[in-house]
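hey m, so remember when u said the tokens were messed up on ur end? i reran from scratch. heres the input so u can diff it against urs
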Amino acid sequence: MSQDPKMSFSPQITEKLKYYVYRLIDPRNGETFYVGKGLGNRVFQHCADELASEADELKDKLKRIREIKLAQFDVEHVIHRHGMDSDTAFEVEGALIDAYPGLTNQADGNGNQDRGVMHSRQIIAQYTAAEAQFQHRALLINVNLTATTLGLYDATRHAWKIDPVKARKAEVILATRFGLIVGAFIADQWLEATKENFPGFPERPGRWGFCGREAPRHFSELYVGKRVPEEMRKKGSANPIRYTPLLESPIAIDGSPSIESEIEKLENRFHALIQSRLEAFNLPIPNDLPHLEGLKATKKKPAAFDVDGMYGGFYFYLQHPKGQVSLVVESWSRVCGGSGQRHIITPICTELVEEGFV
């Protein structure tokens, strides 16, 4: 492991230090810009990383180090506490990260998702709230760091290192703060976190976000204000993403959940798609939207839902590939060239599979 050539700890010193927590300080203004936990010469490694990097685009921490060096200064290294075991060092690191706002750390410290800085009322709520009982395939996203600056919906939907295949299986996205569920959203579409897909947000290569809406009231009544179960709050983990066990379960048309409940989920997503499409065409939403119960339509003879002023409409039918139920929907307006879209709706997601026809 390479390190700052100007300073290092001898083997005798590292043996005495054991685990330690350190701060990196900008000598130009005395500001602490990074807090970390380490062994040996870890505290000096960051400057070595900056020297070894040939990239123009650096993470915030390395960018700050480069700026300091370009100004002909050296980063100041402070050992805040030493002689600790790993668990104790994690706790000290988390407390220091809370104490120094505006750090360049990429993740909050150990325990900060559930045990960071809180008002006494938040602590009471966290430990007295009823534990959530998950009845849906839920994806939990911790938004401790961003909810106050972005707003809850934007903080929840952008942008995460996540498996998009697994994410698309989620029936509901739950935002959490300090161990409590604070918001519920429906993801209509998961997209790569590019500027084109998310205007106004920074480009985040390798990350994903969703476009969606606030979840229906019954989701909020079930989950918002409830406590995240203890078994889902892994000690020492800074990963903001949690999956409920139900998210792994298959969706069968001949088992549990029942076909009736799956059809209801399809219908809710179908109605949301209709509303979204009509809003795009600047058309009013009809009071009576189509129902799927007892639907007998097929690919050759799809059901039709005509909308006044659209000069087109929605054509749909159920299919059951590999034992899974889904709804195929085609929609277009003849007065808008290339407006045709084809969606496949499952009980857990709505996916655009084709567009630009008609």
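this time it looks ok to me. Residues 1-5, 54-58, 250-257 have pLDDT under 50 and may be disordered. if urs says something different then somethings off w ur setup not the seq
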